[in-house]
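User: I'm curious whether this sequence folds into something compact or stays loose and floppy. Could you predict its structure so I can see for myself?
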Amino acid sequence: MFQESRAFDQILGIILNFMFPIKMLLRTYSLSILMIDIVWVVVNAICAVLQASFELFRPPPLKSVRLETALVIGSGRGVGRDIAIQLANLGAIVICVDKNKRNNQETVDIIKKKGDSAVSYIYDITSKDNVENLAAQIKKDLGSVTMLFYCCGIPSPRSLLTQPPFDIHDTLDLTLTSYYWLIDQFMPTMKAKNHGHVVALTSVAGLSYIKDQMPLSVAQFAVQGLAESLMEDLRINKIDGVHVTLVHIYPFIVNDDTTDLRLRIPSYFGTITSSQAASSILESVRRNYPEASVPKHLLYLGHLLRILPRKATVLIRDLLDTGVDFA
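Assistant: Here's the prediction. I'll summarize afterward.
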């Protein structure tokens, strides 16, 4: 009995001695694969940084939007109107949608006077049924939408300063929920054809809390999440012909001629017209940038605020607080 037990121990020892090098080899192999993956990620990350740096001096070429069917929600005034006008001037077929019939028709008339193509639809897109009816009507009249610009929910300087916050449901419906419904209606066709562009416009409220505007800030942050989720969805499904551009608009920078603003650091911020803002947005869209801002240089400030410790970001926000006031 003792001899049998001893023989068994010897056999077991031989087996374990034989398996030990195999385990070591497997661990070594796994470690090698991990190291190769890490090196691959680091090298590609460095290449991406170098490419981004190169594109600062030599940006990608502008793509044509001629004969694209561009849906502009909120085209009755402000940046939305100027985006619609400039898209039409570039040769796009512009679908102007706004709940204000008079303002929207003025936009269409301006476009048609220049000999460009535009059509007006009057809908309140805060209703899901209205969004579905709008999508059905557009598909019947014009076919597929290839570009979607959602210009609702971007506040003006006056609204940020003087208007009380909207009801939370109204704010979310206008800024986020309606946008989701529109994407749900038009994105599947873009994916099927592997061609299209979705533009998400957010305000500074999506980068930093605006006093007394918590519902708006929450909704604007959510729009950013929606845009980034769309980008990931397209990447995972390997759809490279549909693009998403997230644009941060600083309302205090865009002068809508209704306020006389005094900024804390005028030389840094300055003001631009809604036409200039629309031109900047369309340039970023035509270069297929995933993220942009108006004005452009403030995009890097947004990136900086994301990576610094909170105490540091609070100090920077206090320093660059627009301190907007009516002169």
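Summary: Confidence is low (pLDDT under 50) at residues 157-162, 257-263, 322-327. DSSP finds eleven helices and eleven strands in the chain.
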